[in-house]
Inverse folding.
């Protein structure tokens, strides 16, 4: 199969699609931890939205002559490893993973999307990165839980740090293995100082999200 | 909240909605067991279809002045108990659960739907009972697996029987606890001989599904 899209764009579509597909699975799985039917409803709705994003990316690849399975395959191992190392132990950890993990990924992909040459692909990527409602729901539930029992704050703050650590380990692995994707950022587009500023933006946003939850980052 | 729908119809909407919501969660969870990305894609697509059914039932209840949570609540315990007692140990068991379990539930609900007085509700129930693609996909994959290793057939046949047994235990529990729902079937609508014929139809269809998988029922 040949496509007019370059390898970096195909890589980005692949990692994003597999990320959405697994986010769907994990959110739906975590919905089982929900304490009430309405919490279950909320988390299941977010999961369904992730699946819809996955389907759009999948169909876009097919339309562009890209084999979706081949595009996703290189990212199965790092994405699965991230999820396996960050399985939530309870409902609150699941919510924070949905909010903090998804937020970090979204920020990163949005930065990368700016460098996609193909306009329709860039538009679709930005569209599927739209908020699926995780943010306000997670903030509301987590702050309620901390208000009811302030001692959970310490544990959840550690959990937030662990999520970022595991995400960076896997991102590093992808950067080493996927030259095209790395060059999309580093190549002509960003110099070292630019990458430094990118990381500062990602970190600042992460800190803001943790603060919104009432947690130290 | 008051609704023009009778209690039996509300019960049916409640059990069906909670059944679809949990089918969604469990199918999405089982998608993690999928051996290939394309199998994962197939199972996740079915899960998303179940969520879409759930959403339609949920919205219909809201429009009819029924509180969806209150309608689902009586069925949380039996439906969860069914799923907890039938957690698939591998991908094939998950597929059979999707096909055989969903098939049995669909047959049963379709029979009950005939007795719903309210025409829009009856139409919606029949619509959400439409096949979500489980059947042909499961049959294809399971028969392939048995052809590759005939010894798995015995284990999977036992699994099929266990699914039916656990479903009957929980159905019995619901029948005892939810008078309105039981009377919808037994009351004016069906006499004992009619119930006998209903069970014969359900059993025959179950046997046909197991045979399609190449399994003894």
């Amino acid at each position: 199969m040949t496509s007019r899209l370059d390898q970096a764009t195909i890589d980005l579509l692949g990692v994003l699609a597999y990320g959405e597909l697994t986010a769907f699975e994990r959110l739906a799985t975590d919905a089982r931890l929900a304490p009430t039917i309405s919490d279950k409803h909320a988390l299941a709705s977010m999961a369904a939205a992730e699946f819809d994003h996955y389907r759009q990316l999948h169909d876009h690849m097919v339309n562009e002559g890209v084999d979706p399975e081949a595009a996703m395959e290189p990212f199965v191992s790092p994405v699965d490893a991230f999820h396996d190392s960050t399985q939530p132990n309870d409902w609150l950890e699941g919510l924070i993973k949905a909010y903090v993990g998804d937020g970090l990924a979204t920020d990163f992909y949005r930065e990368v999307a700016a460098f996609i040459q193909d306009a329709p692909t860039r538009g679709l990527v930005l569209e599927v990165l739209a908020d699926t409602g995780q943010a306000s729901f997670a903030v509301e539930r987590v702050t309620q839980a901390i208000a009811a029992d302030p001692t959970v704050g310490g544990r959840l703050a550690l959990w937030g740090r662990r999520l970022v650590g595991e995400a960076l380990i896997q991102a590093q692995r992808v950067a080493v293995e996927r030259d095209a994707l790395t060059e999309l950022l580093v190549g002509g587009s960003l110099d070292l100082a630019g990458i430094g500023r990118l990381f500062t933006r990602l970190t600042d946003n992460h800190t803001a999200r943790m603060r919104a939850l009432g947690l130290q980052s």
